[in-house]
Design goal:
about 90 residues; mainly beta; Mannose-Binding Protein A, Chain A; 1 helix; globular; CTDL_fold; C-type_lectin-like/link_sf; C-type_lectin_CS
Length: about 90
Amino acid sequence: MYMDINFLTAFNLVAVKEFWLGVEETSVTGNFMRIHDEADVSYFEWASGQPDNRGGDQKCVVSNGDQQWAWSDWFCSIEQLVVCELPN
């Protein structure tokens, strides 16, 4: 389900720093779900020190280019690009 790092680097997206992954924290702190179907997420690729919930309101998950595309929790209100999965 989650992006392949090779896919991102193949396009040399140096100007892009973050992508939304369609994952957010549930009402239970530390539990995350996919937004499109509310399924629990059991695979994580967190950047060092993440998730940190800085400010107490980082509920969405981005892939962070400054962290070799590892994941960070982030503010849902900030606009970012998205990565979409297409059916086969």
